Amino acid sequence: MIHSDEKSLPEKLSDGIVKYILKEQLQPGDRLPNESVLAEQLGAGRSSVREAIKLLASRNIVTVRQGSGTYVSARPGVVEDPLGFTFIQDKRKLAEDLLEIRFLLEPAIAAWAAAYATEEEIGRIRKLCDETEQLLKAGKDHTEKDVEFHTAISMSSKNLVVPRLTPVIHSAVPLFIDLTKSALRRETIDTHREITEAIAAHDAVRAQDAMYLHLVYNRRLIRTADTLHSGDSL
Amino acid sequence: MIHSDEKSLPEKLSDGIVKYILKEQLQPGDRLPNESVLAEQLGAGRSSVREAIKLLASRNIVTVRQGSGTYVSARPGVVEDPLGFTFIQDKRKLAEDLLEIRFLLEPAIAAWAAAYATEEEIGRIRKLCDETEQLLKAGKDHTEKDVEFHTAISMSSKNLVVPRLTPVIHSAVPLFIDLTKSALRRETIDTHREITEAIAAHDAVRAQDAMYLHLVYNRRLIRTADTLHSGDSL
């Protein structure tokens, strides 16, 4: 445990609940037993179990729905800002450094997607490509759809780690660039389309190269973005 | 906020404390004001502030030392298992997939380290290389020192993201391989040494190649490790 010198009772109980989720092979969306059942199973008081559940909710392992119950989260254990970028002061350098990481990862991921994507996954990638294009053409904020597009590509890579990593390394650009004002509209539309069609054609080299192109345009944008606002918080 | 349908008061207060840490530019190890001061600043009751601090501790943003106070954590916001690997059932595929990610990232990181490492950083990398070697020779568990060695290389890459990512992608191998019984002792010692000397000589290509070699040995180990125990929990 890295976050505390010694474990409190609720922390120990939250570890117990994680073990329970794993043992029972509960899946995202599955409901946990109620407080009193958990309290009995763990041999603890209900108020301590309630504390433990709050800790698990803050780590996005469970989601508490008022009046309904406690459920395993959609992507359990993947927290908001898992690498603590909030606490990096120099957001510009952070955005540049995240893009360097994207250069290392994403061309290979695009190639894997071209190799392994199913027809259903290709349909989803194409739909997100269309939706992002529409937002871009309308001059609206496409950040969220953009991350969904790249995450869909990651999912079809069949690597278990990649879809969990993609949203993290994509948190960079909106940190200090107002993308709705971006001069990069045409290049983003074209390279997204090319990545999509290369994956659909199962052409790994073309997918990889289209992704390199996409990242080069992004790097140019970041390097020339001095005139845009430089946000200093997430 | 991805982890809850609606924010509770302690959640809102914990966001307030994060803003305070950022505004006051508190650094790792810095002490936060006590509960009553925070309660006054945030216009909330002490018990709600106490709840908020517990949430921040569970996200490793602060560390509570009994009888001493609340401090900004050493690596604030970087939680244990930030990508939720605990909840991936197939630990063998997870280890293989993490190694694929290491292939994409670490040769480039080694090259950056060769380009940018200071004399002090080279000294630290060499010390960790020596310590890992001693543990390997003694047949002891070297996992922790090994991660420290690779993290030290990451630190000297000067990329802000890399040192936060390295411990995460290194959590793989010990998941299902008992490294103390590893047949890879000689190869690990030799490739670690070669990486270290290449960085010390500021030879980026040699550092990159030594890292590739290191990863190839690791991949061979993972692929032939069927006979070792296959742990099913973190």
What does this structure look like?
2 copies of one chain form a homodimer. Chain A has helices at 9-23, 35-42, 46-58, 91-116, 119-137, 143-155, 162-169, 185-200, 204-223; strands at 62-65, 69-72. The first copy, chain A, has 234 residues and is mostly helical. Chain A has a two-stranded antiparallel sheet with strand order 1-2. Chain A starts with 8 loop residues before the first helix and ends in an 11-residue tail after the last helix. At the A-B interface, α1, α3, β1, α4 and α7 of A face α1, α3, β1, α4 and α7 of B. Chains A, B: This is FCD domain-containing protein. Chains A, B: GO terms for molecular function: DNA binding; DNA-binding transcription factor activity. Chains A, B: Keywords: DNA-binding, Transcription, Transcription regulation.
What's the main sheet of chain A like? 2 strands, antiparallel
Silhouette of chain A:
elongated
* Terminal residue distance of chain A: 27 Å
Sheet/helix structural class of chain A: mainly alpha
Mean residue pLDDT of chain A: 86
- Total helices of chain A: the number is 9
Low-confidence stretches of chain A: 227-234
Helix content of chain A: 55-70%
Strand content of chain A: under 5%
What would you call the quaternary organization? homodimer
Strand order of the largest sheet of chain A: 1-2
Main interface by residue count: A-B, 61 and 61 residues
Helices and strands of chain A, in N-to-C order?
A: HHHEEHHHHHH
Radius of gyration of chain A: 21 Å
Care to count the β-strands of chain A? Answer: 2
